[in-house]
Amino acid sequence: MSIREHVNAVREKIAAAAIAAGRDPSEITLCAATKVQTDDTIREAIAAGITVCGENRVQELTAHLAANAYEGAQVHFIGHLQTNKVNKVVGKVALIHSVDSEHLLRAIDRQAEKLGLVQDVLLEVNVAGEESKGGCTPDEARALAQLAESLEHVRLRGLMAIPPISQHPGDNIPYFSRMKQLFVDIKEKMAHNQDDMDCLSMGMSGDYEDAIAQGATMVRVGTALFGPRPPMGKQ
Questions:
Q1: Is pTM beyond 0.90 here?
Q2: Degrees (nearest 5) of the Cα angle 52, 56, 60?
Q3: Which domains does the chain have, with CATH numbers?
Q4: Torsion angle of C-alpha atoms 125, 113, 70, 208, degrees rounded to 10
Q5: Under 8 Å between Cβ of 109 and 154
Q6: Which of 110, 128, 126, 130 lies closest to 118, judged by CA?
Q7: pLDDT digits (tens, 9 = 90+) for 132-184
């Protein structure tokens, strides 16, 4: 199948999952996870209708931006972000998905202030408490949300989560459900920017339909669009 055929197939499944959950398919944004993809592959995906690209690595983001590979689409940063690379990401992407500490949140705010802009962010929650993954705890997310609301140069748009790799269909439904409840809880406590809190980014190639059923507004799909990732340096 071509990338266009893959994009169409994923969009059809997103629409079916949304309708089955009593939701409008237009509520769901498809973010194409472009990790290790070439400039030409990214351009092909955008030509096939992809409107949001999500990049995992700062080095790849920088290279693709220099090549103008994302033209016609929004760019999001969806990978782990080190504070010493904040200056390479803030202002270059529409949304940072992976804020998981006060240190990083304040670093983003400082860089955005230098650039005279407001950077949209999501808080990454380690919903399953996995030691091998980044992300804050649900309680830390509540505190970070309050901090974000007090900062002038970041705007909290919502939450992101990467549950464990599922072994069986439906394994991650409890985690997605937990994230939806946390999203609702945090949004209800926002004093000023409740309207800005509109993004729940969860669900990947193997489980995005379950995530949609539980309330995801954005799904990050790579393999289902591009096939298995080539090794780094072989793309």
A1: yes
A2: 95
A3: 3-226 (3.20.20.10)
A4: 20
A5: yes
A6: 110
A7: 888 999 999 999 999 999 999 999 999 999 998 877 889 999 999 999 999 99
